[in-house]
Amino acid sequence: MSLKSLIPAIILYLCFDFSHQRESYEHELVKGVSTVDKDWDFLIFTQNWPGSVCKAWTHNKPNHHCVYPNKKDSWTVHGIWPTKAGTKGPFSCNTTWLFDPEEVRPIETELEQAWTNVEKETELYNLWAHEWNKHGTCAAMIEPFNGQLKYFSKGIDFLKQFHMTDMLNAADIIPSDVKETNAEDINNAVVSKIGKRPVIECVFEDGVQYLLELRICFDKQLNLMECLGEKEVNGLLTNCNISKGIMYPTQLPPPKRYLVQLHKFVNWLQWFTL
Ligand SMILES: *[C@@H]1O[C@H](CO)[C@@H](O)[C@H](O)[C@H]1NC(C)=O
Ligand SMILES: *[C@@H]1O[C@H](CO)[C@@H](O)[C@H](O)[C@H]1NC(C)=O
């Protein structure tokens, strides 16, 4: 094969790999890792808080908007990530088995609520395609995940079974744009329900840390286990600064009063000058 004929393939690969901007921070690709070794030890089930995903997506980007699930206090699935202890990934275990919307058609409306692509300006299937192609094809090594419908249905099941909204609410941790929460209370809320520490992920914007993700882990028999290889600070598995409060923001988009005023003014001006 000539180099020339490879170029379109390389470009396609790059587009595919960088298509999902939000996860650029999720897992750094470890260079030099053998692509043959697709073995993994456990699964990370990640839920994200749409209000914080939105903060990151819209930060300094006035033309970015967010899609929320209908239930405004609902956490949503980010993904189910097969992981080899002490590493990230494996990733993209079968590059010919690409996401196909037809495969998940029977559960599509459920997925929109449970596995919401918050980032409105991305393609409708961006998140699902990314999660399946990168992680699902590796999870497919075990029977409960060996198909797209199975992988995504399991995400919905896990969400119902381990819904963070319920665990946090039970500990009086509720979304607020004023009052902050903290990593220890979040950890205790989850531990009191499932007996395992969650991984608590923050995203940082303008000196504020927002509660972005809560991750729990399963072994290959789908029994809960503690996530391996996570950074531990004072008994908490987190990237958040544990000596600071954590914002768990509401999902209401900020009112665009300025734009509404401008719109009214333009309307008035048009009327006036006609
Ligand atoms: C990749 O997926 C395709 C389509 O499902 C399948 O036919 C093939 O056997 C898979 N390859 C590997 C190496 O698992
Ligand atoms: C965490 O927050 C405290 C209090 O604001 C600050 O003094 C400290 O430098 C922060 N730690 C890190 C690692 O950012």
TrEMBL record:
Q: Provide the species name.
A: Trichoplusia ni
Sequence similarity: Belongs to the RNase T2 family.
Per the record, the GO terms for biological process are: RNA catabolic process
**Which keywords label this protein?**
Disulfide bond, Signal
PROSITE patterns attached to this UniProt entry: RNASE_T2_2
State the Gene Ontology terms under molecular function. ribonuclease T2 activity; RNA binding
Show the GO cellular component annotation of the record.
extracellular region
> Superkingdom, according to UniProt?
Eukaryota
Q: State the Pfam families in the record.
A: Ribonuclease_T2
Tell me which Gene3D superfamilies the record gives.
Ribonuclease T2-like
CDD domains noted in UniProt: RNase_T2_euk
InterPro entries per the UniProt record, alphabetical: Ribonuclease_T2_eukaryotic (IPR033697), RNase_T2-like (IPR001568), RNase_T2-like_sf (IPR036430), RNase_T2_His_AS_2 (IPR033130)
The active site consists of H78, E131, H135
**Protein name stated in the entry:** Ribonuclease Oy
Extent of the signal sequence: 1-21
